[in-house]
Amino acid sequence: MEEFTVPIGPQHPALKEPISLRMTFDGEVVKHVDVRLGYNHRGMEKMAEERSYIQNLYLTERICGICSHSHTTCFAQGVEKLMEIEPPKRGLYIRTLVAEIERVHSHLLWLGVAGHEAGFDTFFMYTWRDREIVMDILESISGNRVHYAINTFGGVRRDISETQKQTILDSLSLLKQRTDYYANIGTTEPTFVARIKGVGKLSKELALSLCAVGPTVRASGIKSDVRKDDPYAVYNELPFEVCTADTGDVLGRVVVRVNELFECYKMIEFMLKNLPAGDIAVKAPRRVKENEVVSRYEAPRGENLHYIKSNGTDKPERLKVRAPTLANYPATVEMLKGCFIADIPLIFAAIDPCICCAERMVELVNDKNGEANIVSFSDLKKLASEQYKKCGNKPEPVSIAKQLEKIRRKS
Amino acid sequence: MDILKTLLYLFVYPGLLFLLIYSTFCEWFDRKLYARFQNRMGPLHTGQSGILQPIADIIKLLFKEDIVPEKADKSIFSALPVFGLAIVCTAALYLPVWHYSTKVSFNSFPGDLIVVAFLLSLPTLIFFLAGWHSTNFFATIGAVRVLTMLFGYEVPLLLALLSPAILADSWRLSEIAAFYQANPFLLLANILGFCIAVITLQAKLERVPFDIPHAETEIVGGVFTEYSGKKLAFFRLLSDIEMVVGAGLIATVFMAGFPGGLWWGLLNFVIKTMIVIFLLSAMRAACSRIRIDQMVSFSWRYLAPLAVLQIFIIIILKGFLR
After folding, report:
1. Which regions in chain A score pLDDT beneath 70?
2. Which is the CATH superfamily of the domain at A51-321?
3. Which residues pair with A20 in a beta bridge?
4. Contact flag B289-A189 (C-beta cutoff 8 Å)
5. pTM of the full predicted structure?
């Protein structure tokens, strides 16, 4: 058979979000992979520049539907540093509690997705059924299942009562039992293990040099976790281990995530039992003086990075978000090389991709010669005004590349 | 009178009408079981406990837009579903349900075991041609996988079906069934063959863990990617009837057939095929999909040698019985 190139995506049943993987196959084996992004630009960063800090807190929450708490916490931490305020202990504990419960929900969800990608739908149904328990806990704490909106600058918005504590502890023991069962199935069920063992290998050196993050890099045997390396919130007080695996394959990533679940339960229990008394929030100023900050946060998928620049007003001048999925793309390309067609969805799902969270930039590619142009905002503006001048009230379809060429020639 | 009986046999029971109704019932049974294994409810709203859901699905598909790819060979693309359905319906006629005499007739003759096995392997070829003529990348990959799988499961299935036939000293389905009705204890000697037959039937029906040719998350719809509307409905019906015929064949050969004339025979048929379908559903719920290379090596490394071992056991047992 000759080599042939096939686009997997932007629409494909294995991909829940739009991304295009151009694959070159030799029979059933993948020879070359080309990742193409930019199918879902949402303009979140631009929106952030036009909203006040407190509005942005709820905007950043909507970057992701699964790790929503990660993004707001990352943003809130950064802004709190800029505002030079310190949230009270109880507020930080509740914030971390929600973060860890969110990690449980994200990892259970991922286990189900991994099962589904391998055609193991029973596993998928079971893990998602028990994920409901976590969702109920989150709802009982924050009133919401997906966007918890628990954070505010200087602490959290809702307190936890004694009865809530007890119900959470009760459901936690059930969850633990269940997770034991899933840990057993995910790592011993023969047909499932046959599919994930030795698939999507990523060596320690490669993982380091390609800057992979989260469970992907930990499955290659590297102890990299922001919670341990650069502790934020109350992580320096919590008892937990950084889980690693040394196999560097999809099985390793399952093992890391399952072990992290148990670490999460340990932390949640500790936090509930040692919840300090006191206020849950301090008052935060509206305006932030001129400064800049980089905030790091260990999301369920890996390190989350927010860069915030303030300019003395109540709106940020620039917000830059780097979601963990983006950091894992280069490693994914390496993992996909040399795998079978049947392994593609599994390997790609193993980084727990959240594609729309990672989409940030528009790049226009000329479909005739493949030439790429990065269009600055001023260029776009010029283009638009020129176009309007030319055609008055009825806009016409126009080749942007051609127009750009014109502008360049003029200037 | 004989002509009337033959017509009834062809069109009512166990012919077309019964097959259509019973196969949709079996699909419902399979879906419901699969759902309950997964802690879901399954079909619920159409009819009592959703029992009419498969029929509703097929009726819905019949009214859907029917698209034929521009580059596909239109006549073959359209003819394949009909051919496939005709083949599995023909295979159903050879099952010894409600047969009226021991004398040789059009639906019961020495060697009909092989004819049924052959007719049941033809849908695989139909699937391959359907995928190949779709001219779609995913369908082509699915088509190649269908053929590759055929080389894996076909030989163990045939070997497993032969061992009870050797013990019964006949390759005629009604005689095999009659032999085991007379000596039910000898059925126990075929347990290994029964397990192999059920596993290979699962592969033939392309269900989890062997749903490699239309693995949704890998190659979209596999061979059925380009099929829609009526043609897809025909293929769905084909798979359902293939499941009934496959289960019926295993019940005939390994579970002593369906004695008792019209009504008891019908009851026997329903219960025994449902037992086989229960096993198929349980297997579907308990496994994840394996890779094509793993499937082929599994059949040749384990299933084929075990099937040969089963034949050896039967031959030795036969020597003792004489």
Report:
1. 1-2, 361-367, 370, 372-377, 391-404, 407-408, 410-411
2. Cytochrome-c3 Hydrogenase, chain B (1.10.645.10)
3. A36
4. no
5. 0.84
